[in-house]
Structure to design on (818 residues):
């Protein structure tokens, strides 16, 4: 213990003698370990932590496809026919069922609220293996036609609306106008399909392929039998799908294609599929940051070890053993590494708190991110790595050093710093590695910045600035006359509100989850000689909708109230519809008999009255789809219970939100008013993922530049400090100030330029892994690859400048007297 106390005192003394270098090493370790732990905690919580269900490794997401066909909005469904023919005869699955999200309206006295809900098969809910907190789960009897209407509540809804009263079981709850009996409450940690769900309803999937009603396709989940692989499930499911009877809606939901193929993917992988590429790249990036930090610290400690080489030689000459000196070096290194590691753990905790605030809500399993056992294990391993980085270089040099050479100066130089070619090569090699790793990260960050810039600059087909959106649900059972009256009165009064420039309503608005699709048929005379059939998004809107949303008119006009005629169906189409289905030179005025396959009546042809730009409803990174706009009240076209209001304000749209909410309550007290917010909030939220990845990569690139600058500055500062006698002699012999500045700058750039070359080569491989994260740019984008060297050169020059100016300002008379 006495020896340890002596070593600790000597270690603290060594840190006080070189405070700048010691502080730089501690901060470098803290940055490297803190960022590494934060990213690892995120990757582990999102991708690697087992799901909170029974035997989660046996849960699989199931869907089928027709090769060559495209489903609407890229949905992945299992068909009813496959389900019916597979469920009761499966040798690979213990259970299979369906689920899906659906917003529902709850009635509490005179109050109606909109709550995210889920319809779920009893097989799915039971196979997750999470028992209810109160009551029971849904059963197969609840899934059958004619069964009593029941509901299971989430813990959050139970707490907010029923004050955690256990006697809630058996009470009625009106859901979408239907009284249901509450039969269970789930525990707080249960979240499926996601954390927003407030209740679960039975998913009644018809058990016959001939049933005329019920779900034709649905999202499916299965549980593997013990020892079964997903590949075996896929083979069995594909056989069932190919033996299922044909359904008339199959082509609509799956597109034209070949024989069906069933896919099975582990649920944990499926839930994180969208974020897996981004998190994988961030994990590689933070590993590079940690490596840069270790290289940086190794260079800093090596500089100190070389500068103290003469000290250790004297201590050896007076009887100090090499083992004793090595122990002293390890103790000093442990102090630096320990301080940096503790600060890194604190920094990681703060970074995770920040990440929970700024991470996109769409990031799955955000609540599972925590500093726990695996993260602490990595912290211990990183601390050991930091200790090795601190101690290994100096320890090896001490073990190999010749005291006599160290005492007299092996290279016979006037300096007392890096003696010999080997020491200089080792230092320069570390700086080259550091610069090359920094280049890789800077190129990656530049690519993501350019990709995000391209994404936000895409013409989405509408103008979200100054637009307020509102979701309104009419009471169940509202007839057509009452619905029309509510919509008309609401729009009339909205347009009279101060600060409102235009107002309209429709069935869909940009970036909402639900999508209305319809089969369309275009005659040969319009399609260019051969009739075409396909799918199109169908918007039912009021007059003023296009003006309020800021749709871009390409040809013709928007819909007006005068288009509500019984003998014709006026429609506005988008550019993508024209590209795919219309081959005539003049689009406006084209008549399309049977466009919606008789849904509007056989004697009501559609007529194109206008063409608008493509609206990228599902996000700027999604391809355009054919779109049709029909007027509310036209033959066969009505806005149902869900009304989406669009209000264009003359100023800040948030300022008119309270007046809009109050107006809706006055027009119809029974309305369930959902979110009322500026459309720009939805637009910003749709880009949260790319923005988050770009921001994190930018932070890593900035840290890499900072560490590279610190490493280069510290190395040159030590070099100048230890070469003051040499620099004094040069000055005395006539060296000018600019010569000394150029000498130090050249020494710094001599390691930066090779690092840039190696880094560019490494970045060419790294950026190919980023292909799935990029939009509108290639992995070898020349601007990104040109920007990174310029940024690092600027950082290197800034890091070299202070030591260079110090060398130039040295007084030769003082230096020569040392």
């Amino acid at each position: 213990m006495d020896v340890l106390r002596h070593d600790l005192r000597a270690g603290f003394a060594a840190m006080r003698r070189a405070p700048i270098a010691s502080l730089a090493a501690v901060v470098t370790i803290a940055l490297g370990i803190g960022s590494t732990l934060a990213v690892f905690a995120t990757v582990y919580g999102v991708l690697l932590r087992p799901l909170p269900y029974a035997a989660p490794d046996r849960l699989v997401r199931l869907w089928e496809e027709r090769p060559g066909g495209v489903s609407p909005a890229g949905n992945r469904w299992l068909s009813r026919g496959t389900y019916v023919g597979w469920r009761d005869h499966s040798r690979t699955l213990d259970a299979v069922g369906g689920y899906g999200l659906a917003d529902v309206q709850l009635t509490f006295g005179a109050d109606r609220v909109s709550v995210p809900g889920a319809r779920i098969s009893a097989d799915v809910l039971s196979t997750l293996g999470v028992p209810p907190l109160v009551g029971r789960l849904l059963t197969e009897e609840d899934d059958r036609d004619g069964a009593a209407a029941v509901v299971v509540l989430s813990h959050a809804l139970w707490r907010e609306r029923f004050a955690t009263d256990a006697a809630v079981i058996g009470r009625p709850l009106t859901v979408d106008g239907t009284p249901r009996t509450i039969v269970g409450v789930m525990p707080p940690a249960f979240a499926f399909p996601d954390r927003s769900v407030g209740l679960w309803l039975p998913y009644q999937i018809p058990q016959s392929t001939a049933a005329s009603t019920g779900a034709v396709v649905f999202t499916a989940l299965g549980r593997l039998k013990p020892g079964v692989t997903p590949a075996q499930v896929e083979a069995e499911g594909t056989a069932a799908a190919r033996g299922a009877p044909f359904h008339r809606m199959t082509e609509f939901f799956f597109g034209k294609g070949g024989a069906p193929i069933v896919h099975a993917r582990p649920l944990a992988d499926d839930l994180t599929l969208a974020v897996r590429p981004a998190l994988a790249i961030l994990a590689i990036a933070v590993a590079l940051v940690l490596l840069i930090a270790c290289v940086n610290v190794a260079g800093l400690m090596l500089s100190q070890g070389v500068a103290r080489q003469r000290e250790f030689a004297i201590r050896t000459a007076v009887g100090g053993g090499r083992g004793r000196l090595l122990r002293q070096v390890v103790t000093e290194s442990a102090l630096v590494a320990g301080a940096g590691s503790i600060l890194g753990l604190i920094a990681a905790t703060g970074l995770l708190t920040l990440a929970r605030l700024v991470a996109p809500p769409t990031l799955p399993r955000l609540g599972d991110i925590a500093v726990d056992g695996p993260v602490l294990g990595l912290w211990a391993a990183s601390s050991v790595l930091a200790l090795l980085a601190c101690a290994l270089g100096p320890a090896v040099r001490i073990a190999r050093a010749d005291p006599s050479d160290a005492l007299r100066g092996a290279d016979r130089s006037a300096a007392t710093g890096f003696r010999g070619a080997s020491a200089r090569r080792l230092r320069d090699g570390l700086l080259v590695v550091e610069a090359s790793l920094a280049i890789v990260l800077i190129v990656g960050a530049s690519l993501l910045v350019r990709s995000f810039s391209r994404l936000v600059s895409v013409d989405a087909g509408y103008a979200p600035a100054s637009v307020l959106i509102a979701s309104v649900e009419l009471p169940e059972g509202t007839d057509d006359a009452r619905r029309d009256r509510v919509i008309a009165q609401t729009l009339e009064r909205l347009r009279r509100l101060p600060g409102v420039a235009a107002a309209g309503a429709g069935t869909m608005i940009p970036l909402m989850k639900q999508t209305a699709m319809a089969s369309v048929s275009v005659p040969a005379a319009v399609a260019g000689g051969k009739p075409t059939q396909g799918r199109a998004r169908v918007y039912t809107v009021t007059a003023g909708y296009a003006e309020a949303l800021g749709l871009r008119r390409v040809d013709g006009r928007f819909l007006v109230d005068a288009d509500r005629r019984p003998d014709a169906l006026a429609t506005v189409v988008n550019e993508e519809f024209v590209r795919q289905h219309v081959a005539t030179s003049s689009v406006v005025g084209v008549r399309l008999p049977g466009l919606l396959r008789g849904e509007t009546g056989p004697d009501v042809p559609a007529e194109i009255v206008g063409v608008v730009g493509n609206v990228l409803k599902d996000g700027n990174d999604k391809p355009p789809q054919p779109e049709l706009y029909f007027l509310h009240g036209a033959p066969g076209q009505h806005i149902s219970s869900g009304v989406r209001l669009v209000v264009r304000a003359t100023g800040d749209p948030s300022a008119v939100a309270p007046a809009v909410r109050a107006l809706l309550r006055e027009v119809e007290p029974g309305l369930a008013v959902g979110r009322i917010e500026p459309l720009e909030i939805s637009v910003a939220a749709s880009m949260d993922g790319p923005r988050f990845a770009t921001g994190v990569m930018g932070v890593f690139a900035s840290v890499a530049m900072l560490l590279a600058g610190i490493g280069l500055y510290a190395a040159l500062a030590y070099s100048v400090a230890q070469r003051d006698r040499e620099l004094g002699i040069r000055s005395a012999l006539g060296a000018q100030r600019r010569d000394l500045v150029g000498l130090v700058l050249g020494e710094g750039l001599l390691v930066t330029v090779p690092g840039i070359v190696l880094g560019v080569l490494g970045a060419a491989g790294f950026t190919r892994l980023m292909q799935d994260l990029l939009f509108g740019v290639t992995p070898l984008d020349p601007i990104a690859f040109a920007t990174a060297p310029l940024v690092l050169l600027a950082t290197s020059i800034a890091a070299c400048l202070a030591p260079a100016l110090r060398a130039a300002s040295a007084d030769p008379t003082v230096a020569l007297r040392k």
In short: Residues 410-419 have pLDDT under 50 and may be disordered. The first strand starts at residue 59 and ends at 65.
